[in-house]
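Dear colleagues,

As part of the handover before I leave the project, I'm documenting each prediction I ran so the next person doesn't have to rerun anything. This entry is a single chain, and its sequence is reproduced below.
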Amino acid sequence: LRVGNVKNLTFLYIATRFEYPIINYISINFSIMTIKDLQPALIWSIFDEITKVPRPSKKEGKIREYLLEFAKKHNIQAKTDKVGNVVMSKPATPGHENAPTVILQGHMDMVCESNDKNFDFENNPITTIIDGEWMHADGTTLGADNGIGMAASLAVMADNSLEHGPIEALFTVDEETGMTGANNLGENMMNGSILLNLDSEDDGEIFIGCAGGIDTTITFEYKREMAPADCHWFHIDIANLSGGHSGGDIHEGRANSNKLLARFLFNISKEKPIVLSEISGGNLRNAIPRAAHAIVGVHSSRKEDIIVAFNRYVADVENEYRTTDPNMSLTIKSVDKPEYAIDSDTTTRLIRALYACPHGVISMSHDLEGLVETSTNLASVKMQPDSTILVTTSQRSSVESRKLDIANQLEALFLLAGAKVTHGDGYPGWAPNMDSTIMKIASDAYEELYGVKPAIKAIHAGLECGLFLTKYPHLDMVSFGPTLRGVHSPSEKMHIPAVERFWNQLTLILKKVAELNG
């Protein structure tokens, strides 16, 4: 029996072994765990508050207001810069005034993905669900990336029982869609020499390096034409893919909805042209796209052939991705003739380019076993009101030259397809420092607590650390956090026991740094 958020149940019990059934009502009290029951109570209560505050990327006003109110409530000094970053300061506990200043760092924004297309991330709170040892949201991203990092920082700032040196807590804006906060951090916002980035996703692992990234945006201009009358029209829909983080999950080989759609459209257009009225897929640049659709017209004589081809395609794709995307849904249905369509020349160039566009792992690192070196994500395809189609991609690499190389390859491809191509500013990678003092302290703390050495790694996902080094080259940094899975998708979940281990490690690191003479 699986019981939801129910406190009391009454069972009807019928004893049938007697000649006359005996009927009893048995009332049983169930203690259903809520977030208020979790430990450490302080970090969980703050995380609960954060889930109730909307915080999409580039729209962090409400969470910033929450942070400033939190600082005011707890008599913590706080300041902001012109882009909206927040820094809080807390003095050392007595006797540790000369210890190095530690910066606790996380980002305010969250990736907003939902199974419900109408979910309003700008106004609605996230509903959390506890399922055994895991917490997830009700059909949306949980926002533990990086809500739990913020909660940990705030818990440290509010907990006066901890032993620590001087502390600063930095909360940046727009990490997920452009790293705007880290890129434009105000002058003299921080004074610390040690930075703890609380934005990693694996308990028992300490990260000392990350990939750099850059976005490549492609624009197709098209002519809007009247949809032909001699066509049969289909709505093709691809949904329920696993998706995930375009850095941390790119090596899993999960299906990309844009690639699946382009593949089928290319196949049915090889011999005879098709008419494309609508196409859309994916959402965020740093998420592997989970859904896509198109409205396509074919000559009426081809109706049955297209249905047969689609069914064969579905069988192939389901077999190819039976392990990584077991819940995928591919459907085709007849629809009424739309009013307008994309001109045939643009349709051909777009479909060919999307099908040829690389996606996934490009190369693996030769320095760190198992680390993805370079990758690219075909993130989204969106029709715009001004008769353009916007294709968004993102590239990552731990080698700066390789990052630029794969971005330029995409530029070459889409220039050949007659599109316009631009690149974002990008962000640098973070080169590992095996002589890092804080790495040793963080490793010793975990081993002291749990009897095992944590793994020392670099991560293919982008962290803000590389950008901080450009302004504060003296920083000694590590990144760590509790176990998260399925980030950047509605499958995101957080391992509850790992949060307590994360908190214990963090507070012990602060104690060990406080014992340094500075």
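Residues 1-30 have pLDDT under 50 and may be disordered. The longest strand covers residues 372-384.

All the best with the project,
I.
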